[in-house]
Amino acid sequence: xxxxxxxxxxxxxxxxxxxxxxxxxxxxxxxxxxxxxxxxxxxxxxxxxxxxxxxxxxxxxxxxxxxxxxxxxxxxxxxxxxxxxxxxxxxxxxxxxxxxxxxxxxxxxxxxxxxxxxxxxxxxxxxxxxxxx
Length: 133
Fold this sequence. Notes:
This protein is mainly α. The chain is built from five helices and two strands, in the order H-E-H-E-H-H-H. The chain has helices at residues 2-12, 35-48, 71-82, 94-106, 113-122; strands at residues 21-25, 57-62.
């Protein structure tokens, strides 16, 4: 199953490093999860999902919800990622923010394409191709 999900993430993200992936292994408190077995598993997974092929793959984290083992390290890694200004520096133009506000304020579940284009024009979005999905 891990292979399937990693392939899906790679495909849907266009294999960009800007779509970070943390692989989290749970139940590391299980008796079968000896330190040696965990090291072997870590090596195997890191070799299988090398960053060269999976550019967004950040880290393999082993945690136990039962004992809390590894949870602090996982939270720390996530916080570091969220503080990475180079990763999250996308700025949405004001015209799109304004259009979003209009759509939300109107609260209509559906509008005609003509009406939507008029709202877009009011916000300064003049190129109809920008509005299409």
